[in-house]
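Fold this complex.
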Amino acid sequence: MMEEIAPVKVRLPAHLVRLFPDGQTYLELPAATVRELMDALETRWPGMRDRLCDERPAIRRHINVFVDGRRARLETPLRPGADVFVLTAISGG
Amino acid sequence: MAQKVLILIGTKKGAFILDSDPARKSWSLRGPFCDTWPTNHVVGDRASGRIYAGGGNEWFGPAVWQSDDFGASWTHSSRGLAYAEGEAPVKSVWSLAPGADGVLYAGVEPAGLFRSDDGGESFTALDGLQKHPSRAEWNPGGAGLILHSLVLDPDDPDALWVGISAAGVFHSADGGRTWNARNRGTRADYMPEDLRYPEHGQCVHCVVKAPGLRHRLYQQNHCGMYRSDDGGVSWQSIEKGLPSSFGFPAAAHPRDAETLFLVPLNGDTAGRFMPEAKAAVWRTRDGGASWQAMRSGLPQKDAYFNVLRQAMATDTLEPAGVYFGTGSGEIYASADEGENWTRLAEHLPTISSVETLVVEA
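Structure:
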């Protein structure tokens, strides 16, 4: 029997979610790594992974993902109930 | 049948649209659209009426936006708008060109070309430019290694030209799979004296196709203005009679292959603004043999603005309208082929591009 993946708590920036229908800034999604979280976001809102990740593949240069207070990469594991913040870096003019 | 005219404006902070009836005397401004993303190019597909906007956001990457209701609502996509895994990521969309049968081409930074066959929902990379033998020698221009000029051949759906800063002009006869450099006769003044006419590496700023004449192109380059009568295989200078050899945009007339509009600036090391701070659009009626400064209604004092490479366009009405947008956020329009000018908007963000769309109201 497959082990069920526990949900993590995800906060998304308002100027990201407004690009997608019915976007919301807080949700709980099952994911064991940041990469799986990106896949889950893509399933929920097709196109969202492209906004957060590039083709290297990596989290985009001016996007920061923090997991339980530490800056994360796609490979970073997520504990059940982890606090995930997706933030936009200081950028622009 | 009643028509309406749209001026499609790409700016550093979103897209804007100016609307008018065909008299082109009264305009109203809408926007900003595209969530205020840096929007490099906004174009209309005359066949479908759909508007596309291309750009890129420092946070969220490149995207093409689409509107089927003349800008009232927008969606966006970048599905497939990516290079192979491990390559430098696509940063931004710089040019869009709707072609026959609903095809949409998108030029990007770093320089490359994508094609969509489903109205901008998804894209496929045409990797011929990445594989070009000279690719490793291409150097970025001031705005990056950008594919900003995208010129389709109305007589051959497989033929297209691109302009890349600062790699030069390239032509494909097979839908973008393979490319040939088309820069013979254009200068690179920034190279050592004996290397000023290289096969590639010229800093092209804008390429446009003249109507009606199959092989007539015009080019504004960092170093000169040019005409080609053989599809870009060779270029002849047409800068004699102009106040400088430097400028960014070029706009062809919708029906007359001999008419071209340019906006020469005072020079690449002199500030890159209007010569003597007096604004003028320069028009030729004889394929570049002679030039006339069109100034009526344009500021003739303290005009320290530029006009960027994609920021001038004509419409398809009679007489043709001419439009340009400035780096300081103004839109100027002429409804009589450049004779008289009116300012339609001011205080917009820096304007990257201006295009027009004439539709049945």
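Residues 218 and 227 of chain B are 5 Å apart (CA to CA).
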